From TrEMBL, chains A, B:
Protein name per its UniProtKB record: Chloride channel protein
Domain CBS: 650-716, 747-806
Principal location class: membrane
Pfam families: CBS, Voltage_CLC
Organism of origin: Clavelina lepadiformis
Cell compartment(s), UniProt: Endosome membrane; Membrane
Membrane topology: Multi-pass membrane protein
Annotated CDD domains: CBS_pair_voltage-gated_CLC_euk_bac (cd04591), ClC_3_like (cd03684)
Keyword set, alphabetical order: CBS domain, Chloride, Ion transport, Membrane, Transmembrane, Transmembrane helix, Transport
Family membership noted in the UniProt record: Belongs to the chloride channel (TC 2.A.49) family.
Residue ranges crossing the lipid bilayer per the database entry: 105-130, 197-215, 299-323, 372-391, 412-429, 489-509, 516-540, 565-590
Length: 811, 811
């Protein structure tokens, strides 16, 4: 953390003095007749201008913007926003402008839209490529397209349409399973099954091992879903390289491999991370965004929205996800741009890789029947089950991840991935609901049983009603007792549900890209379908029950229950239980189903799921992982409800050494250098004198270091030169020998945020959360008592909640 | 503004001392081993407890919550939130709870959901009744349903289905025009036309006059759309009675009357106001919301969302409207509850008065054709036109409203309504596109021309292609040259567009409920349909142009352009230009059209509309009216870009008398009473001494008045009694004669928000906007220099923008 005092050329005082007159406010000042103001006020204004110019110089001198903040530091939103305003003023100042200046203003105004357009296009393209690669890898485990090996099963059979074989087996002549290729013949014998099984296991193991090796050696940040980290970064934390090009590349490559290996994970969470990487990469093309950490985060919010948008094909849901779950600072301008970005991404994705239908959405379904009032009971039940599952999953997964972190297991990430993959594929091949990839399973589970459905899920003991060739008026779902196929399917569903429940706990958090959306949705859909079939059979067995008799009487022999809708509701409930999303989840599901009338079941289930989940485990999986990793995330959603005061939290605590401070005049260069070297604090309060302890301002560590470097470069300055943080500085001080005084007034922030020691912590927390500053000074009647940093607040909150405050990452 | 010092019984010191021990923090304090802290810290804590308890006592003693703030004052969000936290702590404190206490906790936890449920149901019911009433009043101008006069035309004819006459004339035997009733026969002669025309004019005049009289005499706040005021209230301003029961009733009654009189206005904006009234009324049932102005505003945000939700049948759009346009403080919890509220309202509305289709939405349309790439050019053009219209409308309407305000016109509101109604109905009857109510017109304009469309709008010179009886495969829109009917329709469209453009300027702002959504949408739809038909004819005339040749080749003789879509896009553009809504507008339109593929045209048009509108007139109509009326609304969306400092804005300005302050010890009761009487300030800074000018705290005016009243009630206190705002107060001071000292430490806020005089105003504005406090104290090294209130900030902004700062309403 300590910074070396290597000399760097930068003359602050010249920059700031030279640009001082540029601030147009003087005009206003004169016009309001306030020019007779005291000298103090005049000076004040000048000083502020100097300070801002000094900041702006940092931005415009094309300093490496990465050097602005250290890794794992928190950004100062107030300072960044003020830098941006100054940058904007500098571009637009003056009345007469050259053509070039006008172009620059236009470029500046457009760059916000341009950058989100580029991000949207990049995110859409990435998602399209990942989609195609994933599909291919998934089917590669089953077999290969002879003569066109780069095609997945669907494309292979679509190109060589073979109507008869397709209906029979979803397969075609060109597509051959591994048994056929290796054995040279076509069959369904036990040995073929064994060959296919073996090929499946081996290929899956290869995929996951490759993914783990790539992640470990090239981009360790590419692991996990990335959403907790993106959330932390958006809240103002710096994790260098987390959104870099290398992470983008490796995550894009390994995510399809991980999904292809049939592990219980998805590529949707990682897509949010990938889109955020795109956002970061493109933000660097525009200095307005690349060199300002606060503005960059606006762009990253939009990128996260685009990520969800392309993951599911739901632009509005994506924006709301970004708003509700991920983002921290989300002004209206960002909302609109996020929407634009999400839409662009969805459109590009559609042109790169359409899902084969005219709709964007991943699991587009339309149900023909409305839901009935009594169904609200099973829907609420599904919500409760989803909440139970979510709470259980969060607790179990956090326990397992903590165990991994603290035990030797954490040292063998590749081995862990291999073992989990082996267990997963060995157990998942026999059951069709786990052998297929999770998206396909979900898609099958949420569909209605139509007259042309031939799967086990729709095997009811009933004569189907065909009305001639015109199939549009055939009742949507045949109903009746359970057929043998459906009985088998129910067993398989139950086993798949149990298996997915357990294996996902061990999968999420491994050192490969692991998304959580799809596994959660899959667990929920399995659960929902089982409940749905149960309700359907209940209604079929007791058709005269008054609860549903009147509602179902019009369905003449048909079921009035849609098990597919239950799967959809269950999926929402499970995902809600795990992530505690609310509005965005309902909107995503609404966009997927495309019918407003199904919002009520979805909302009911989501509400119950959130209530039950919150009651049993206080936090969602993302917040849990943020806490587990000790990221300094100041939760905005939860209110601070304790009654502590600023004085209780501030440093120094009683017994600790006094605060490191600067006195406004008299300290020598040597003193200051020793001060900087002796600690790693981010800044130092400036006092008027040690006696009065009156607060005068605040100096940032970085500014001080640069100022000291500059002073060193001047020949007349020695180590004994006294420094003056005041406006007036004696030209030469004879009694101090031959050392010339150094004026450092320019680097003082004269208006640090300060609170009284009596201020309740709830106010202080609000100041941190809403203004986004890094530290607050604590004073008592103008005397400095201490300082509270964001980290102190987080430690304090951890302490109050009975956790170890020392695990919060350094700030 | 001045408050009388009437005595009121309330013993603050007892309340606060009695409840001091209840704060559970002491336990934590002891557990962290910090109990050895200095005495100062101990005192601090106690002091804070006392202060909060004092606040809580206000809330829990069932004071009239209206007395908390004066009319036209701004609320202190920080204080309200802290009051709410204390209330919550007081309910949940203690380990062992009685059954009653548990019930109370549960009730408290549920009340948030309960209140939004009730509001949703109330808003839905109101909207349903208003819908039905409006429909009836609209058709009443045309005729009456014989034998069932309370039915509107549609219901009348639906009940007495008469297939032949219906296709012919959209009419039936039971429904009779006024000419038929008065003349006793059925006909289409010139005299009948005159009779119908006259009846139409007379009835419309009656409706609008009745509405104006009701509004003027019973609820003056029921006029206008109400959205600017709701926005101001949500930002923390108090306008007493604006959301009261009386306003709710009168606005609900007069809104259908105003729409029924065929004025160019809608009932959608007023529905937002009506829903907010419902919100306010129901909030009073729950002390948690009714007695806390900040919490009440959370509920009002949800109510506003419900208002838009029921106005158009778009729950998600409603929530986003509330988020984007209306609300100020919108935490995630509110988002989720708003969604619930909006959905409840939409469902209740649907059961009260379904639109006749299975869909919620007001203008539900589905188009059969995708849009083509080259169409983005006319869509962008529509956006530009919408922006031009919007900017022109805002400027013209604000000019007219300012004129009304400053001239004698403002004194004759009823006469104004009558004159405008007369002009409107006289001019609108001859043209079918203005004779019908605007919703019907919009609905007709956005529809595709199908094979069964018989209106003038679909009169093309082309032989229609019928494919036998199976009509599902008939191409959706016949295309060809303009038929005579269409030529007439084009003229009528153009005239209607011009007429609506002009008359809406004079209508919006009259003293009856005037919504702006529907007129704007109507103007846009008229404009869009004209452009759409133009583009269609262009493509029809030059079918071989390379721009559209390839895209249109599959349409074999059919048009590949959908003029209805242009109407939809134009409607969005015009509404966007007027209100500058962005995301919520697109989402509303998306919910209305129900197809993601049409988002791109809508978004493009909205973007261009906003850009053009913002370039030509900097503000939307709502912000314009807020500014016109001088409401103290601190815009959060716009950044403060000036470079002034806190010292430039604070009071006292140079030359002004010094600040009214309190010195912490030595002032007599008489001094304080004189201080309170001499001004209407909201509070007074407390200084340690007049010499040092060091800031010690802040006392609210209201608290001081109550404390003085209490002191008066004690026999030993005289006017000469000295007061002590310090912790320690001498028991009796002999040198002061026989007057006992009064301790007023409990009412001091020891941690007022203070900034340095060097603080840039951008930071101060951010503090006001984000923390929501009422005033900021300005200090220089701990010495009090001045005070900045929200009003000072608003005045300062007005000054910087070259406006009259004195028009901001008192605060």
């Amino acid at each position: 953390m300590g910074e070396s005092l290597t000399p760097r050329k930068r003359n602050i005082s010249f920059t700031s003095l030279g640009k001082e007159e540029t601030i147009p406010l003087h005009n206003f000042w004169a016009s309001t007749g306030y020019s007779a103001g005291t000298k103090k006020l005049q000076l004040t204004r000048r000083q502020s201008g100097a300070r801002l110019n000094e900041n702006a110089a940092e931005g415009l001198e094309e300093l490496d913007e990465l050097a602005n903040y250290e890794d794992f530091h928190t950004i100062d939103w107030l300072r960044e926003m003020s830098r941006n305003r100054l940058r904007h003023r500098q571009i637009t100042q003056g009345l007469r402008k050259t053509f070039l200046q006008k172009i620059r203003i236009l470029h500046d105004a457009c760059s916000g839209w341009l950058v989100v357009l580029l991000i949207g296009m990049a995110a859409g393209t990435c998602a399209g490529i990942i989609d195609i690669a994933t599909k291919w890898l998934i089917t590669l485990k089953m077999g290969v397209c002879t003569n066109k090996f780069w095609l997945d099963q669907e494309s292979c059979c679509w190109l060589h349409e073979d109507q008869n074989s397709k209906i029979d087996n979803d397969s075609c002549a060109e597509w051959r399973s591994w048994a056929e290729i290796l054995g040279g013949h076509r069959g369904h014998g036990a040995s073929d099954y064994a060959v296919n099984y073996t090929a499946y296991v081996i290929i899956a193991m290869m995929f996951s091992t490759l993914a783990a090796v790539l992640v470990k050696n090239f981009a360790p940040y590419a692991c996990g879903s990335g959403i907790p980290e993106v959330k932390t970064i958006l809240s103002g934390f710096i994790i260098r390289g987390y959104l870099g090009k290398w992470t983008l590349l490796i995550k894009s490559v390994t995510s399809p491999l991980a999904v292809g290996s049939n592990l219980s994970l998805g590529k949707e969470g990682p897509l949010v991370h990938i889109a955020s990487c795109c956002g970061n990469v493109f933000a660097h093309l525009f200095p307005k965004y690349g060199q300002n950490e606060a503005k960059k985060r606006e762009v990253l919010s939009a990128a996260a929205a685009a990520g969800v948008s392309v993951a599911f094909g739901v632009p509005i849901g994506g924006v709301l996800f970004s708003l509700e779950e991920v983002s921290y600072y989300f002004p209206m301008k960002t909302l609109w741009r996020s929407f634009f970005c999400a839409l662009t991404a969805a459109f590009v994705l559609r042109s790169v890789n359409p899902y084969g239908t005219a709709h964007f959405a991943m699991f587009y379904v339309t149900y023909n029947r409305p839901w009935l009032l009594f169904e609200l009971v099973p829907f609420a039940l599904l919500g409760v089950m989803g909440g139970l599952y979510g709470a259980g999953f969060v607790r179990a997964n956090l326990f397992w991840c903590r165990f991994r972190k603290n035990s030797k297991l954490g040292k063998f990430p590749i081995l862990e991935v291999m073992v989990i993959t082996l267990i997963t594929v060995l157990l998942s091949y026999p059951n069709p609901f786990t052998r297929m990839d999770a998206s396909t399973v979900i898609n099958e589970l949420v569909q209605e049983c139509g007259p042309t459905s031939h799967t086990n899920l729709c095997d009811y003991n009933v004569t189907r009603h065909y009305h001639g060739l015109n199939t549009t008026f055939v009742p949507a779902s045949p109903s009746g007792g359970l057929g043998d196929g459906l009985k088998t399917a129910l067993w398989q569903l139950a086993l798949a549900f149990l298996f997915k429940c357990i294996i996902t706990v061990f999968t999420f958090g491994m050192k490969i890209p692991t998304g959580l959306f799809i596994p959660s949705l899959a667990v929920g859909a399995l659960m929902g379908r089982i409940v749905g079939i149960g309700v359907e059979q209940l209604v079929y067995t007791f058709p005269d029950n008054p609860m549903w008799k009147t509602d179902c009487q019009f369905s003449n022999g048909q079921s009035c229950i849609t098990p597919g809708l239950y799967a959809m509701v269950g999926a929402a409930a499970a995902l809600g239980g795990v992530t505690r999303m609310t509005v965005s989840l309902v909107v995503v599901m609404y966009e997927l189903t495309g019918g407003l009338q199904y919002i009520v079941p979805l909302m009911l289930a989501t509400m119950f799921s959130k209530w039950v989940g919150d009651a049993l485990s206080g936090e969602g999986i993302y917040d849990g992982h943020i806490r587990l990793n000790g990221y300094p995330y100041l939760e905005q959603k939860r209110e601070f409800t304790h009654t502590t005061l600023a004085a209780d939290v501030m440093r120094p605590r009683p017994g600790e050494p006094p605060l490191k401070v600067i006195v406004q005049e008299g300290m020598t260069i040597y003193d200051l250098e020793e001060l900087v070297k002796s600690n790693t604090l981010n800044g130092f309060p400036v006092l008027i004198s040690n006696d009065s302890q009156r607060l005068m301002g605040f100096v940032c560590r970085k500014d001080l270091i640069v100022a000291l470097e500059n002073a060193h470069n001047r020949p007349e300055v020695t180590e004994d030169s006294p420094t003056y943080f005041t406006l007036h500085c004696p030209a030469s001080v004879s009694e101090l020998g031959n050392s010339n005084p150094v004026r450092l007034f320019n680097i003082v922030d004269l208006s640090p945020i300060a609170v009284s020691d009596h201020a309740p912590m709830e106010t202080v927390v609000e100041i941190f959360a809403k203004l986004g500053n890094r530290q607050v000074l604590v004073t008592h009647n103008g005397k400095l008592l201490g300082i509270i940093t964001k980290k102190d607040v987080l430690r304090h909150i951890a302490e109050l909640e009975g956790e170890d405050p020392e695990k919060i990452m350094f700030d």
